[in-house]
Fold this sequence. Notes:
Blueprint: H1 3-28, E1 30-37, H2 44-63, E2 71-78, H3 83-95, E3 101-104, H4 108-120, E4 125-127, E5 143-145, H5 155-163, E6 170-176, H6 179-195, E7 198-205, H7 213-222, E8 226-230, H8 233-245, E9 252-255, H9 263-269, E10 277-280, H10 291-302, H11 308-326, H12 332-340, E11 343-346, E12 349-356, E13 359-363, E14 368-373, E15 376-381
Helix pairs in contact: 2-11, 3-4, 8-9, 11-12
Amino acid sequence: MKKSTVLFSMILTFVLLFALGTTMSMAADTIKVGIVLPLTGKLAKFGEIENKSFLMALDEINAAGGVNGKKIELIIEDTTGKPDVGRSAIEKLIAQDKVVMVGGGYSSSVTWATVAVAQQNKVPFLVNTGSADKITEQGWEYIFRLNPPVSEYPGAFADFLQEVGKDIKTVAILHENSLFGQKGSKKFVKRCEALGLKVLMKEGYEAGAIDFKPLLVKVKADKPDLVYMISYIMDASMLMRQSKELNLTPTLFVGGAAGFTLPEFQKNAGSATEYVYSATLWTPSVPYPGAKEYYDKFFAKYNEPTEYHGAEAYAALYVIADALKRAKNLTRQDVRDALAKTDMMTAFGPVKFISYDKKTQQNKLPTFLVQWLDGKLETVWPKNVSTKKYVYPTPKWSER
């Protein structure tokens, strides 16, 4: 072999090794965290607000020094709102991207599929939105949840009924046939029984329906005092628009969070959203340090309002960063152990993972009640965090 060829080979090898070393060094300077969210599909609006909040928190954390001098690298995978896609996404994050832990988790059905994979592979997963109770009822060592389970969503609303809505006696429950809707509706039936309310009907529907009028005609015939709906954004909008068209006017329309708190609900359904109540897990007026600041920063950065889904994601990354800082080593087991010892305050509220009822590694928080008034989502209950006085009962459509 000619000397020139040998020299060229040596130089090429040196360059490749240097490049590889630089790549490995760069990789060593970041901590990979996986996030699973619905960025496309019917749940994309929820995924979008959470994605923006994750990225905003990421910029803040890394600008402040990251995790003990290392930056967090988020690898965000699109679940498209489908369990099988979500399962493939988390398998990629674990096997290919070698993430140290996973966060996110929007819909309950997708979250259920992904947390099972995380547990099987012993990868810590901090759920920040998926709310079916059973997610934290399996005794799984690697699964943690930031947000309250769906059974606790109506907590503030139940208090409101006992103090303000004492004349409410009968209920109609409408829910989409998803894990979230099915579990949430069953839990609300039990809540109604505890409050002494009579459930006249509990009807499920397929998500994405165009015509809810046959269902709403049945509701109107039963004349319930309260119509409680567990729906995502498009269905929530359509239910209220068609309720107005049918002149369905119970004493209260109440949403079980989800689609009833997004700004798009008001954009899609317009005046039909006025006076609609909804359970919620967070508002900018909650007495948590950084809550209002998060809202203001989000609005300034993206020129649009945010709500509880975004606050969950924003807080979740701070919880993840805190656990990474406290972990003995950046191994999945050590990060899991650090998560289990979390005790901190966030813009979403205090975070401490405890066991109660059948749940393990579950954060416990109060809930709130909001109402659409003059085209804006106002906090109306509890009184100490209200931004506006509630309107009760719901005015008839002809009297507005």
